[in-house]
Every structure is written in C-alpha cells, then in structure tokens.
Amino acid sequence: MRVYELAKQLGMENRELIPELKRLGIPVASHSSALDDDSVRVAIEKLSSKARAGETSAGHEGKKAGRAKEHGAVHALVHEEPPKPDKKRILIKKKKEEGAEEAAAPLAAAEAVFAPAASQGAEAAPVAPPVVTAPEVAEAVSSEAAPVDEAVSQPPVAAAVVEAATKPTQPPVVTATPADAAAAAKKKALATEALESEAAAREKLKKAKKAPRTREEDEAKFKNDATRWGDLRAIPVQRREDRSKHIHHASPTEITKPRKKSVKLSAGVSVKEFAELIGQRPADVVRKLMEMGQMVTFNQSINLEAASLIAEEYGAKVEVSTEKAGEALLEEAAQSSGEEHAVPRPPVVTIMGHVDHGKTSLLDAIRQTKVAEGEAGGITQHIGAYMVGVRDKQVTFLDTPGHEAFTAMRARGAKATDIVILVVAADDGVMPQTVEAIHHAKAAGVPLIVAINKVDKPGANVDRVKNALTEHGLVAESWGGDTIMVEVSAKQRTGLDNLLEMILLQAEVLELKADPERMAKGLVIEAKLDRGRGPIATVLVQSGTLHVGDAFVVGNFSGRVRALVTDTGKKTVEAGPSVPVEVIGLPGVPSAGDVFTIVKDERVAREIAQERAMKQRAADLAGPAKVSLDDLFAKIQEGNVKELPIVIKADVQGSAEALAAAVEKMPAGAVKLRVMHTGVGGITETDILLAAASKAIVIGFNIRPEPKAAALAEREGVDVRLYSIIYDALNDIRAAMEGLLEPTLKERVLGRAEVRQMFTIPKAGLVAGCYVVDGAISRASAGVRVIRDSVVVYEGKLGSLRRFKDDVREVQQGYECGITVENFNDLKAGDIIEAFAIDKVAAKLETTNRGAAPQSHRA
Ligand SMILES: Nc1nc2c(ncn2[C@@H]2O[C@H](COP(=O)(O)OP(=O)(O)OP(=O)(O)O)[C@@H](O)[C@H]2O)c(=O)[nH]1
C-alpha cells in the first residue's frame, strides 16, 4: 500500500500523514512511498484511535456508542463519498479545535485573502478552501449570488454548513436522526456553538477586515499626497494615528490655540493668511511646509493639500472652498451671468457712414440739443461716449464715429454697440464707405438704422438714396422693407427727435436688458493719461452697477475705483448698465476694448492681473530675431526674419488703433507684420524692453520717447521710429519690406528745455521761463516741438530765445532762458521744448539688388 492510499483511507492529507508515520517510526519519503502490511496495520491502529481521542478532547461529552457510531459514519462517508473527504476532515478538525482556534481560523482566512503572499498557518491552509466551498454549496441551494468577500466573511459557519450540505434539504437542527437522541443533542449543541462562534468570528473578522483597509487607505492617501507634492521623500512616515498622538503631546506647549475649529480655504491663500486662519505663527507653518519638502515664503500661496494636513495637525477642520482662482473665476462669473433681475437698459449706438456725410455733425447736433437741454449749464465732456435723454428714456452714443473704431473693438472680441446709425448724405448718396459700413454692421450682427442726412441741401434726393440702399439689402419700411430710415438735417437740427424715437423703438424690439444688481462688467471705450488725475479710462458699463470703491481688473491692471465721472463732468458714486463713466484709480492706461471687470476683492483682482501679465510676458518673450527697418530687407533675404513685431505708441487711442489696423491690413509679403502692442502715451522704458525682448520695432505717433527710454533704445539697439502722419509710417514699413527704404532725412535732437514758469512781457506777450535740461536750444535748429506728458502737442518754429533782456543764438544746458514758440500760446509749466536739426542720411545699395531681380526674371 502507498502512503497516499493510506491517507485516503484514514481521511487525512499526505502532508499530515507523513509526519505521523515518521513519528511512529515508519520510514517514508513521499506520498508515493510503499508501506508494508505491518506498517499499514500499525498506522491504522494508532492513527484511527488518535482520531477518536481527538474527538473526545473536542470537549463534547458523548456516549461511547454514539461516538463509535459517528466515527463509523465518518468512515462510511470517507469510503462511500470519496469526493468530499475535505468536508469530513473539516468536521473532525472542527471538533478538535478549541474556541480560540476557531476564532483564529477566520482571521487566518481573512488574512489569506487580504495578504495571499503572507505565510499561512498550517491550520489555516486546509481550512481556507472549504471556507469558500461551504457557502458555495449553500449558495447553490439558495441560488443567491453573494460577493466573494461576504462568503469569506462567514468561515465559522463551515461546520454547520458542511452538515447541512450532507443533508441539504433541511436545517441541521431539524435533521437530527430521531433514532439517537444523544447524537441529536450533540449535533444541536454543535450547531448552536457553530452559530455562536460564527457571530463572534464575524465581529472579529470585521475588525480584522477593517484594520488592513484603513492602513492601506492611509498609505494610498499619503502616496497620493506625495505624488501631488512631487517629492516622495518628504512624506512623513508617521501614520495618522501616530501623528495625532504626537499632536496631542505637542498641543499643551503651544502658545496659541486655533481660533476656529473649522477654516475655509480657497486657492491662492497665502502662507501668512493661512497661519492667521488657524491661529498659528506663520514661521511654524513655513517650518511644517519645509518638513513636507515645500519651500515657500510667508507671502506665497500655500498648497491646499498641505494646508489641510497642517490644519488637521493643529486640530482645525479644513473646508476647501471650491472657489476658482484667477481667470477661471472670471470665466465662471461670465458663465453664471444669470441676469436674474434683468431690467431694460438704454441702447448703445454707434454712428457710421462715408466721409463728410455728417457723422460728427449729427453726433454734435444730438449732443448739443439733448445734453445741453437736459443738463442746464452742464459742461459736456468728451469722454468717448455720452447719454441723451428722450422723454423718460436714455440713449448712449459712442463718440467715435466710423467703422474703423467699431471694427477695431470687435476685432478684440468686444461688442459694445447695440444699434448702428448709418449716415448717408442725401445729396451724395451711397458711397464706398457707406457700403463698407453696411458690411461691418452686418458682420457684427448689429441692426442698422439709416439716417438720411443733409435733407436741407438743394441737391438732396432721398429716394435716390433709398433706391441705392436696396441694392445692398436695406429696404426702407415705407417701401415694404424692414429697415428704419429717417430723414434728418444735422445742420438745421431737424428730424433728430424722430431719429431718437426710432432708436428707442429698435431697442424695444431688441429687448435690451441687463441686471443692475450684479457685480459690474464693462468695456474700455477710451483710455488716456491725464496729467492731474493719472490714467483714466472711459468705461461703458455693460451689466451690473459700478461703484466707487469696487475692486477691478482691466487688462493687466488691477485696482480700486477711486472716482467716477459722468459724461457731463459730474462726480457720481455709481453707474448702471449702458452708462459711460470715466474711471479714476487705474495704475496704468488700458487699451480700448479691454474688458473691465469688478471682482469681489483686491486680492483676486491682483491675482488675475498678475496672471495675465505673466502670460503676456511669456508670449512677448517668444518673439523672434531683433530687427530694424533699415536692415529688414537684408534680414528677409537671409531668411532670418519671417515676422516683424511692432510696438505702436500714440498720443490717443484712436490713432494707435488706426495705425495698428492699417499695419495689419498691409499685404503680407515675405514678412508678416504683427502688432504686438499698442498703447497711449510716450515711449517708456518698458516699451523698449518689450521691443528688445521680442526683436520688435517701435513706432511712435505724435509722441516722443522719454529720455531714459531713448537711452535704453540706443543701448539695446531697438529701432524707434517717430511719425506724425500715418501714411509716412506705413510707407516706411512697406518700403523696408521691399528693400526700398529710402535713407531719408533723419532728425537729430539738439537739446531740451523745461518750462518752469509762464510770464507776460509787454510787447513780447506770453513767454516761457525755461531751464535747459540737456544739449542746447539754438536758433539754428530746424524746428522745435512742445512735449507735454511725452505727447507732442505742437511742432513749429522757435519764436524768440532770450537770456535776460537779450536775444541770444544759443543757450546751453544748465542755463535759464526765455522761450516763445511761433504761433503757439499754450505753453504750460512742465512742458518740454525740444529743439531738433534734420540731417540727410546717405543712400543704401539695396535698390541695386532689387533692380537686378526683375531683369533676371524677364530673361
Ligand atoms: N447742409 C448740411 N450740411 C451738413 C449737414 N451735416 C453735416 N453737414 C456738413 O458736412 C460736412 C461734413 O460733416 P462732418 O460732420 O464733418 O462729416 P463726417 O462724416 O463726420 O466727416 P469725417 O469726420 O471727415 O468722416 C461739414 O461741413 C458739415 O457742416 C446737414 O445736415 N446739412
């Protein structure tokens, strides 16, 4: 007989039997070792009796007969049902094991599931399989699907279930053999015990199950945190419980206590602010952060994950506010722009039309009749927009006639206009720019009202105008179409009321509404640098109400509204939808078309502005090779330049926009022109730095560079070109691109004098008392220009130059003198008088190269 056959007979496993045999002195090597008959007999005798002894020691007082019967049954089972030896064995084992061991089984089983690689107890291994099998049998009977770990969680029931499985139709208690009451009692006791131990083991298993999960979760969480913080080494190895223990120890020594049990955190909160929130010293927070591998200063924003952990350490609960930061916040605000309390708002109107058809006259006529009428004695300000009252309603006019401004705004994504008034002179009819204006308005999807102007003129022919307009899709209502057409005379101020009525009618159709209760949002219509008041922007409020004191962000700037001034020059504390106001309190001059947004506090405003500035800087830095107009052609030929970035600075926003639009419209030849920045005011060091970094050229229109900026441009080799006629600027660029830039007359600054005081001298009139700040002011200069806040306010000739009462030829730096400028009586203290000479610059050779090309092409 072989070992495995004996094992089968005894209902034991080979690995259990082999040591037993060895103990009995029977030499065996493996499960297939042969056994002689004597050995088999001894083994059966010893091991069978051992099994019986085991039964008795299981703590159940049973009768011998019962035991023998049961044992016999076991034997029978072993022999008759060979496929289920395991179950039987379990039953035997179960009886053998003490309560403590029973409890250990599920634990071991649980561990076997949660940590399969872990070494299993010799007991656990054989227990584990039936643990799963037994409920499976039950499952098969009840046809219920139970999750695996649920099945695993019920191992102690195995014994009972095994019994049930052998008599599957009835529960164990009822299935007791009626013939043997003792056996039944015993079984009952067994079943009860099994159920009790099941309950106890379930409890234990729950705990056993819970413990490793928490640990795992904790570890996963820390790992997650580590990945987020980007430094695994910095993770504290302490477990959460340990940490809290540590905190417990530490807390009595702390001087300060958390002010709040729960703190609300939002993105962007600084270390210092956070420390204040949790009532700790910022230095301590910084130290904690350092321990986590994060090097931050008091004013830098804190990582929210880290903040949560630190706050927890100090016993404060953290609520991370889902509030978004920066642009995301603005976007969110824009999306959730629920106009809950929307009320009708005044329409915003732009006037367009062909040159000289009377746009300005019409604007002026409306303003003068209406504004002056409504605001008795009020001085109308030119702030870029104005409001007029029509009965109890209002209409806002944008004061920049022409479709260029309209389109420039639109190109920046800004839609300020609700209605376009197309002015067509009745004597002139539909002209090219009329058609252009129609296209611009249509492209923007803005409804048109036609004002047929100059009807007072003898040559006026309204029908001809209407007829011509039909060709462009505008059919007058009187002719069965849907375009409102009104006959007006800006000169005689007739038809204006009718025009305003029609505007209101159209506005009604458009159902223009806005919610005045929201935080305000508007558009910059115009911006300038005012000497006394600093940067000023005219903002057209589009929704919400703008208040003095509101924190705002516009372009790269942020601040607080210091004062608001209406179009009539009056101070106001608030401005609602469609109201244009001058905003004072800006840190810089924004661009027309910039969105002016109110945010809840200055911190958020600052954050957004900084974010934008950083983005712009990054974008600006990405610019290509440094060039100047002079060597542009050569660089193009070398293939070094594909794009020419241009910085445009002008005296007024309108000129800057117009020049930028014209430059961008220039046909792209070998090089693409890109206007990277336009601004109002003198050329500053920042402009030069921007140009230097982006290899751009700077074009100044009607302005001068500040002395420091001029020096910087010289140092950095930035090409700064100054013009007073847009055409000249465009011509130069075009010529440079074609290699035709004529080396023209170049201006040279001779000297600059600052006006210190104005005084009147009999006969000579108003004289400026000046101090020559650099170079020399000379009568021989080709001309002088008057510069106020870097803007050229006048260019002409020197009138007189005196020291004391004598006319002089030249006054050098460091001396005082009296200056007058020919035909200019508006000199003011603080103005700069710049004297310049004009030099001729030698011609260059590029024309020759260019001349050769067409010839070779022809050949
Ligand atoms: N007779 C008459 N002349 C008018 C009327 N409206 C404007 N004008 C004259 O037409 C000329 C041009 O008027 P503007 O208002 O400057 O025309 P504009 O369209 O603003 O011109 P640009 O600004 O150059 O595009 C001026 O000489 C006005 O006096 C009108 O209703 N009747």
UniProtKB/TrEMBL annotation:
Biased composition (Basic and acidic residues): 58-68
Domain Tr-type G per the UniProt entry, residue ranges: 344-513
Alphabetical list of PROSITE patterns matching this protein: G_TR_2, IF2
Pfam families referenced in this protein's UniProt entry, alphabetically: EF-G_D2, GTP_EFTU, IF-2, IF2_N
UniProt key word Protein biosynthesis: yes
Binding site for GTP: 353-360, 399-403, 453-456
Keywords: Cytoplasm, GTP-binding, Initiation factor, Nucleotide-binding, Protein biosynthesis
Annotated stretches, region: G-domain: 347-495
Localization terms from the record: Cytoplasm
GO MF: translation initiation factor activity
SUPFAM superfamilies hit by this protein: Initiation factor IF2/eIF5b, domain 3, P-loop containing nucleoside triphosphate hydrolases, Translation proteins
Region Disordered, residue ranges: 49-68, 201-221
HAMAP family: IF_2_B
Alphabetical list of NCBIfam families matching this protein: IF-2, small_GTP
PANTHER family the UniProt entry points to: TR-TYPE G DOMAIN-CONTAINING PROTEIN, TRANSLATION INITIATION FACTOR IF-2-RELATED
Record's function text: One of the essential components for the initiation of protein synthesis. Protects formylmethionyl-tRNA from spontaneous hydrolysis and promotes its binding to the 30S ribosomal subunits. Also involved in the hydrolysis of GTP during the formation of the 70S ribosomal complex.
Family to which the UniProt record says this protein belongs: Belongs to the TRAFAC class translation factor GTPase superfamily. Classic translation factor GTPase family. IF-2 subfamily.
Protein name: Translation initiation factor IF-2
Organism expressing this protein natively: Nitrospira defluvii
Gene for this chain: infB
